[in-house]
């Protein structure tokens, strides 16, 4: 045998050994199912959202208070993305159906872009059930007290 053939055989033996070691950690009920396939078949588990702090309307920046009034009135809005669907990809807000949450930009004085402040409201577009404020671009939220 030449060296290339020996290396190929050794590589195959090592990979087979790794596969056998991996399978030895599988419980009898899992035999025949690869972990990735099993993960796809596992039912979706609800993500628990930690308690969200509350902020009073009076404690919001003046720009956020003005924006809340405009949301209740149905506009007009200054931001070109105001009213678009918020996907809740961070999963920091309670899980709801897609389209439940909408986001609005809170103007930030001195910012040359949209800034990091947002209000996210859930429910009806003009009379939302609940609204949240974030000052750090969705890293944290506070529920706005009604």
Verbal overview:
With 146 residues, this protein is an alpha+beta fold. The chain has 2 domains: 3-41; 54-144, Microbial ribonucleases (Nuclear Transport Factor 2, Chain: A, Roll), CATH 3.10.450. The protein has 3 helices and 6 strands; from the N terminus they run H-H-E-H-E-E-E-E-E. It has helices at 3-24, 35-41, 62-73, and strands at 54-55, 84-85, 101-105, 118-123, 128-134, 142-144. A 6-stranded mixed beta sheet has the order 1-6-5-4-3-2, covered by helices on one side. Strand 4 and strand 5 form a beta hairpin. The longest helix is centred in the first third of the chain and has 22 residues, at 3-24. The model is unreliable at 25-42 (pLDDT under 50).
Q: What fraction, in percent, of the residue positions are helical? A: 25-40%
Might you state the CATH topology name of the largest domain? Nuclear Transport Factor 2, Chain: A
Question: Alpha-carbon distance between the termini?
Answer: 80 Å
Beta-sheet strand percentage? 15-25%
The CATH superfamily of the largest domain is identified as Microbial ribonucleases
Radius of gyration equals 26 Å
**What's the structural domain tally?**
2
- Which secondary-structure class do the elements indicate? alpha+beta
Question: CATH class of the largest domain, please?
Answer: Alpha Beta
Mean pLDDT: 80
Inertia-based shape: elongated
Q: In DSSP terms, counting alpha (H) and pi (I) runs of 4 or more, how many helices? A: 3
Task: Please list the strands of the largest sheet in the order they lie side by side.
Answer: 1-6-5-4-3-2
**Uncertain stretches of 5 or more adjacent residues:** 25-42
